[in-house]
Amino acid sequence: MRSVEDHLSLVTASVVAPRPVQVAISEAEGLLCAEEVVTSDPLPGFDQAAIDGYAVRAVDVAHAGADAPDDMSVFDTESVEVAELDDTGRLVVHLPVVGEVPAGSRTPTRLQPGQAVRVETGAPMPTLADAVVPVRWTDGGDDRVMVGHGVESGDYVRRTGDDVRPGDVAVRAGSIIGPAQVGLLAAVGRSRVLVHPRPRVSVIAVGNELVDIDRTPGPGQVYDINSYALAAAARDAGADVHRVGIAEREPARLREAVEAQLIRSEIVVICGSLGGEASEAITGALADLGDLDIGRVGIHPGSVQGFGRLGRDEIPTFLLPANPVSALVTFEVMVRPLIRIALGKRQPMRRT
Fold first, then answer.
1. Stated pTM of the model
2. Where does the pLDDT of residue 235 fall: very low under 50, low under 70, confident under 90, or very high at 90 and above?
3. Contact of 62 with 113, CB cutoff 8 Å
4. What are the C-alpha distances in Å from 237 to residues 28, 112, 174, 241, 333?
5. What CA–CA distance (Å, rounded) separates 136 from 121?
6. Lower CB count within 10 Å: N or C terminus of the chain?
7. Structural contact between residues 347 and 248, judged by C-beta atoms closer than 8 angstroms
């Protein structure tokens, strides 16, 4: 009898990863990136306001919020009006508001010293402006704004290339594409990305006693549970699943059915009786395609199971027990990790 660990090592060593394909980024979530996505343009692509407020020169509002001196004449404020705010002893700066720039504006805007421009989050910064005063630090004026707190140059401004510079790698090969990576791909203008696709899994049920669920079982017949349950389990693991359904046990027909799936799949799962003549009939029918070894593994239920690499491409092929509980347990322990590895998951087993 082979241990679970030894058998699982044999199984996982046979993983066949699908060839990389280009997919739309909307279809890439959860897949393994197969390329280094190198950016050609900076992100952001222009200096932009990081908050709703007023674009200013930082030097013009440097005194805002400072303690008022006894003699206001000591300030060399040039064209900026500086005043003491009543009852606080703090200084405020008054600036004329010479325009408004919404997000998405394509019209270049320029302010002069001693002026402010109202800006929305994401709006392009006016020429000469080097900071944004948040609305909460002002009186929200339309024609003239009173600024009660100073800012440093660069405050509340997203500079060109702050997030990504040309030549930076936005998404690395071998990384799992999650929601953040999808967003970053969109941010750098990529509509498609090269990925390792979901492994294709074909599920075949074998047994003369089986009928599909849209038929009424006759004497000695039962519904085909396993092809539906195992297809659902493979889909849950992240595979692209093809449920073949019930295959005839007649050797030539069975071989034909399995061989057709070896061409289109990275994993083939066959479910049927593994006792005596039944298992010998299956292995005999598939002998020309490769060795399908049936033996005992230290697991219960599902101790008797088969595994081999069939076809020209040596596709991992499983032979699972006919009992539905045994089939699902065996799938969970042996097949699911192979699917997760093919997807590039670092932890192929479920957390416990």
1. 0.69
2. very high
3. no
4. 16, 61, 19, 10, 12
5. 14
6. C
7. no
